[in-house]
Every structure is written in structure tokens, then in C-alpha cells.
Fold this protein.
Amino acid sequence: MSVVKIKIESLYKIFGANPKMVMEHVKNGVGKDELLAKYSHVLGLQDINLNVQEKSIQVIMGLSGSGKSTLIRHINRLIEPTAGKITVEDQDVMAYDKNALRNFRREKTAMVFQRFALMPHMTVIKNVSLGLDMQGIKSEETKEKASLWIEKVGLSGYEEKYPQHLSGGMQQRVGLARALTNDADILLMDEAFSALDPLIRKDMQDILLELQSELHKTVVFITHDLDEALKIGDRITILKDGKMDQDDLPADILLNPKTDYVKKFVEDVNRSRVLKAKHIMQKLNGEDISKAIKVNENDFIEKFIDRVVEEKPEMIVVQDKQNKNVGCISSKRLSEILKK
């Protein structure tokens, strides 16, 4: 049974001189453009209701100005809401005083930024250790933990280098290691890979997925890239003009878009590259699987499509990490999905 880690209820954010005053206009149907033209206020978020499941990657995506970065910054109260409620593990984040909020940010959440946000005068290991140093953890323990995560993200040997000596991809690995060293339950990633070259970006996506399979953090990941969202998200929320357009499983976003806006987003996506076996599998129900080929639930379609074309099986069995059968995909269903 899934557990809600972060609950966002009726969240509004209006930027301007008197946001409380214009809230009534927004609730009465005044949209983003009209609010700006008539009342000189900017509608950042409007009536956001979202449950983020524990140990999942929740992607929030949309175009520039859709409100996605504004939303993620409400979770740790870098931005204060105009109205609404945010709870983490049933604790009201809006009710925290300064000390409670500081501890929440230090111990419960960690953030990875688009532009890395590394300290240029600190070495890699000092940057990675920063959160633990701020918590007053003993230096020996701090160095041990920092070294572990530096190794996990593939930067062993760079501990004493400075950020300016590293490529963009390497700097973002430092940022990720710093966030993970804090051992926070919640990882907030705001366009974390957007500034990277495509190949480096893919590597970082793979690193994140590999680490998540081991760590099971609650990750809120912001992106404007649908391919990225479909690849890494357990669920995807699409924002438009500060409002939620659709919140769904990746396969449903792709195969069952609920609005014209979402349809336009997904129409040119290469499905074999972003849909995993677990996204499209169905329950086993007495099917003959004696001649079926076996694939892992986290395999993308493109990984096994050549085998399907070559061997022409009627059925594909989907297995978990323990090689237990967890579902199946008929060749007919696979063909229909790729043709849609």
C-alpha cells in the first residue's frame, strides 16, 4: 500500500503588492492574463492539490512560466504560499517556526539546483560535506560519508579538486552527492539536469535511477523535458499557467492524455525510448508463457524490441529484480502501443 509523504492542498501563490486582496478575483474565475492586466498581480499557482507518494519519483513538468519551480520551492518554504496547506508525514510545514523550519530544511529535505550552486572556494569533498558540517557532525564521520557518496556518483580521485576544474556534468554529480550525503528523506531537484549536454544528461538520469533503486528516496523532480519526465517519473504532474492539467502514471500521460495541451506535449514522443515494461504490462491470468521471452520490469521497450522482432513471441513475461514473474505483455498489445 502506497503512503503519502507530501500532501499539497488548495495551494495558491499570487505575486504582487496585495495578493490576499486579489485572491477573491482568482477564485471567481479571473485568469493569469486578466489578473496581470487588471490588477497588476501575477498568478503563480492556482488550486494545486497533489499527493506525493513515499519512495517515489514525482515529476512536475511544464513550459517556462507554468509554475513548476514555484511549486517545488513551497515544499521547503523557500516561497511562502498565498493560501493552502502542505504537510509532510502529516506534519503541517506551514506551522513551523524558524527553528523547526531550519531543522526541516537541514535534516528532512535536500535540494539540487540547475546551476549546481557549489561553493567555488571549496574543494569537492568540502562542498559535499557542507550540509553535515552545518549540522555539527564530527569531521571524521563527515569525511567518511562524503567520500562514500563521491564514490557512488563516480568522482573518486576528485576530492581535492575545485568546481572550476570540473565539467558541468561533474559539477552536478557533486551537487547530487552533497544532497545525498545529508541522508534526507526528501530530495528536491529543480531542473537539475537541464543545463547539461544531452549525453551527460542521460548519464545523470541513469545515475539517479540507479541510486533510487538502492535508496528509495522521495524525489520531487522538476523538468520541462517530457522525455526526461517519462524516463524517470513514477508519476508525472503537468502544469499550465499555474494550474494542474494532468497528474498520472507516465504510461497514462502518454497513452491517455486528458487535455489538448497534454496531447500536444506527447504527440512526437518516441514511445519505445520512454515506456518501460512495467508501464504497459498486464496481470498474468493463466496465459501460456512457456515460449515467452523474459524482460525486466524496468527495461525500456527499445531494449527488448529487437528480440521481439527477431523471435516473434506471442507473449513477453515481465520480471522483477528477483526474477519473479510480475506481469505480461502480449505482442499484439506491444504493437498497438507503438502504433498509437
